[in-house]
Write a structure and sequence with these properties.
heterodimer; A: 114 residues; mainly beta; seven-stranded mixed sheet; four-stranded antiparallel sheet; B: 113 residues; 12 strands; 0% helix
Amino acid sequence: DAGVIQSPRHEVTEMGQEVTLRCKPISGHDYLFWYRQTMMRGLELLIYFNNNVPIDDSGMPEDRFSAKMPNASFSTLKIQPSEPRDSAVYFCASSLLGAEGQAFFGQGTRLTVV
Amino acid sequence: AQSVAQPEDQVNVAEGNPLTVKCTYSVSGNPYLFWYVQYPNRGLQFLLKYITGDNLVKGSYGFEAEFNKSQTSFHLKKPSALVSDSALYFCAVREGGNTPLVFGKGTRLSVIA
């Protein structure tokens, strides 16, 4: 398996524009997580899914953020409208059922909003 | 709610010397503890985990970690540091069940030749 695949790797956009980040989890994994990494706040969990169903989105910072998982092999994180303070690295991770399962991370999308 | 503390933002060590990256945790039940490493412009890579059993856990690249229940710690160690070990290290905890990992803020390790 190629691991967790995220696209794009880098995104530069203007304030106010819509941004969509994409993630393909490892095949067979039933949990998918979206994290955001910044210097100030470290790694923050935004939302996670189990079997394509959102379980906890309490980490989503504002209504401008939304995430979907239409099927087991694809998820999106959308920011609309984007703001400069959304600039961060966004990671997607997937794991198997069970507390022992470590999460596998994608390489991240570096988002810059100017 | 579970939480993780990494008290050091930065650790500097000379190549060949032993290294320790500290982590303490807080959970209400049994902890499931993990260490990840992040190299520049890369995602997080799994190093090792403690679920149950022997308190000393061995992982990738010669790293190990010691689970200490009384001190609620899970420090990462390596007997002899390499320059290539320089990276950002994250400790994480899961309280059990199917809850997400909660990460510490990370510790930047610099190994100096």
